[in-house]
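User: quick one
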Amino acid sequence: MIDPHESTARPAQTTDEPANGMMPPPIRRITLDSQPTVALPPSQDAVAIANTGDRSLAAAGRPKRGVAGPERMTISDLSVYYGDNQAVKHVSLPIRQGEVLALIGPSGCGKTTLLRTLNRLTEVTGSARREGLITLDGTDIDSLEVTEHRRRVSMVFQQPNPFPMSVFDNVAYALREQGSKRPKKKVLEPYVVDALQRAGLYDEVASNLDHPALRLSGGQQQRLCIARALAARPEVLLMDEPCSALDPKSTNVIEELIVELRKELAIVIVTHNLQQAYRVGDHVAFMYLGDLVEYGPTDDLFDNPKAARTRDYIGGAFG
Amino acid sequence: MSVPTRPGGAAPPLPPLPLPRSPGGGGRQGRSPKKKRVNESISTWRLTDRIGYVLMWAAGLLLCAIGIGILAYMAFKGLQYLRPQLILSSPTADVDQSSSGGFLDPLLGTILITLIGILIATPIAIFAATWIVEYGRPTWLARLIDSGIEIIAGTPDIVIALFGLVLFQQGIFGWMSFTATDGAVFGRSFLAAGAAMSLIALPMVFAATREGLQSIPLHIREASYALGKTKAATIRRVLLPSVKANISTGAALGMGRIAGDTAIIVVLLGASLTLDPEGNVPGLNVLKGTGGTLTSYVYNNSPAGEGNAPQKAYAAAFVLLLIVLALNFAVDLIARSGAKTGLETSRLGAR
Ligand SMILES: Nc1ncnc2c1ncn2[C@@H]1O[C@H](COP(=O)(O)OP(=O)(O)OP(=O)(O)O)[C@@H](O)[C@H]1O
Ligand SMILES: [Mg+2]
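Assistant: Done. Structure below.
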């Protein structure tokens, strides 16, 4: 991502606030209402900039961060095994309303597995076994009815997976009751359109909502899946690399959507794009080979990573 | 933006693999003066590959010739004798071909028996296939069901017919056919023959449905579960609708098989010339009664049978062929329209 402000901002970086030309975004520190499991001491922007020298991310100005709300989900000491292979190792994380938790880490480190566990989808995989406690609003998710739970905690997958039906039906399916065909198309239409609009897909499919979803492009399919997940009105939204198939413009739409949505729901996003983690994440968790290596407020984690592994991993991304 | 790669020198490049260069090939490219694309030439192939290539062509052309031959011969013979009144009038027993009527009853019989058979077979096949693919536990039961259907598929129709006759002559199946005053059950009727026919079509509908369900990737199901849908809702609203084309394909193939079957008609339907209703409840009386179909009509009137009306046999055979061809054509149409959903259908791999 090339930031238009970068070059103009550079001379101004000696000041306390990194000015970025015409519109400096307000910086709001994250207020923590409960200690994160791997809390980091809050760092001052000035310190961060001084430490990291000429860092474009600092110079570019910080994205506006969300205001942390109540803790919706809590993961404590979670381990997931596939047979004998432990894919997630003793991970503890809070997931809060009002902010976005970005999960980063190299391929195969268990990010998808962690997300699927939150949605209780690992139960569908025969070989998977789970240990540890996950709560939703203080209730053990195992004690919730599973379909009810999944409607509250919705998931967008790494690969687009629309149903082999029309664009309209894909979204409508999420809105309807179990197996029922009611309510009718007329009633559902405004909801479907709204979901498609929020996912930034509506303009492309408006002329033909009966178009088969599998005939859409990969990026359009992914946005359809996002629309579908949104239509279910979840309380927690899990997104597994939602933008990996998207062009910069659609990525932008989705990122804006995420930032917008975090007010009303808790979001967990897995991404390989560290810039994206930086832009949308309020907290970042770095995983490595199933371990949670580091967790902390985005700005801290990127400015001042504690663990050497984290530093190595994010080292290539900025500056 | 990437994970720092491990330091270390690149491996030294491998020497080229010492392969004998194929004769021909290569050198030709430079010579062509015009900008013409040089395609792969068969002259560079090995002899066995060349023979195989010729055999592939020959096999295809041979089958094509046989198919067209049958159709052309039947069309020639059939159209020669086919008259509208043949289709519109009932047959009567007469030694003279000119006054033995048409084959309206056998035509209706074919349609009726096909409908009965497929209406029984389709739901059972769908339930069985869905259970096998989506549940299939315990495994031994799934395997048992699989073997059961394989046995049904492999049993000759005459054996199914005999089995059906023994079964439907039992007292508890008395309602299905004519019962004599002494309580003996006749065991032959449209219902009995239709039930036996369903076994002919069932394996085809089952296989098509199962193949369709198996071709739906797991992540489609997971997408549905992730939206908080139950397994039942997923099957009803996502999986079965997307295998509609497979089901129709299997059903159309099965109907073709039923329409063309003779053994069950002879043993379980009576293979009579006309429809002979049984009892006096309209509708049900036809189902309980005996009758014949185009296949039994063709057989009876062929030189091998006793009806002795070979011209009408040809005409009826041609009509039967048209019905079966129409069903096959429907299969192709369904397979193609199935592509609209985006999922490949099993047969002919709609493009
Ligand atoms: N269904 C499965 N059965 C067995 N092992 C699995 C399964 N799914 C994942 N794994 C294993 O679990 C580990 C973590 O996989 P996971 O998909 O969670 O990684 P990831 O962090 O999402 O990687 P990526 O960034 O490439 O998507 C891997 O070692 C993988 O081999
Ligand atoms: Mg993954």
